[in-house]
Amino acid sequence: MRSSIGGLLVLLTLGCCSAAQAQSLRCDGQLVRDDDTMADVIAACGAPNFTDRWIADSALGFGLPMSEWTYNPGPGRLIQTVVFRGDRVVRVNTAGYGFREDAIPASGDCDPGLISPGLSKYRLLHACGPPLTQIGYFITAKRVYESGFSYPLTRNGGRFVYRERWTYDFGNNRLRRLIQLDNARVVDVMLGNRGS
């Protein structure tokens, strides 16, 4: 009985430690964690590979602006994203394995099958280049793609989301792809007209 309780305590301790490590980022021996400032993160980790401001308070007058910084350490290591509300870290996430950052390809210069829900804007840009067209707007959504992010709640229970619609043209032998992104993540891929 005593050994099973001791084993349980060890497991709980390991679980607590791994959960804490999942919410932090280590750069050159310095630890970045919740409530650190943008300046703290730059001092510890340097400039990010990609920044995206995916909710801003100016359009609807709610909360503080939010942004996401992406750190790509290259192949064999995990990409880390740091989400800020205003100037403060609110979340650190991993986003799959890193990759070599070559030049961003021309628009639509990729296999359309690579574009799927959950793909980050950063990976989409590096896989397929900039979109042919792009629009963005704020919506109030009852259902959102969570992926570890928090979404500000509205008074009626909906959530504020920054939605983007990107169009990719893959040439005249393929159909265009209309990509919907919510807060910097692909949530839907739709077929459009034949490309040109």
List the helices and strands and how they pair.
Elements: H1 2-22, E1 25-27, E2 30-32, H2 38-45, E3 50-55, E4 66-71, E5 78-85, E6 88-97, H3 121-128, E7 133-141, E8 159-168, E9 175-182, E10 185-194
Antiparallel strand pairs: 1-2, 3-4, 4-5, 5-6, 7-8, 8-9, 9-10
Report the major sheet. 4 strands, antiparallel
Please tell me what the overall shape is: globular
User: Total number of β-strand segments?
Assistant: 10
Distance between the termini: 72 Å
Q: N-to-C SSE series?
A: HEEHEEEEHEEEE
Strand content: 35-45%
Q: Which short descriptors sum up this protein?
A:
single chain, 196 residues, alpha+beta, 2 domains, four-stranded antiparallel beta sheet, 3 helices, 19% helix, globular, disordered N terminus
Would you write up a description of this structure?
- With 196 residues, the chain is of the alpha+beta class.
- The protein folds into two domains: 28-97, no CATH class; 112-194, no CATH class.
- The chain has three helices and ten strands.
- The strands form three sheets. A four-stranded antiparallel beta sheet has the order 3-4-5-6, with no helix packed on it. A four-stranded antiparallel beta sheet has the order 7-8-9-10, with no helix packed on it. The chain has a two-stranded antiparallel sheet with strand order 1-2.
- A hairpin with a 2-residue loop joins strand 1 and strand 2.
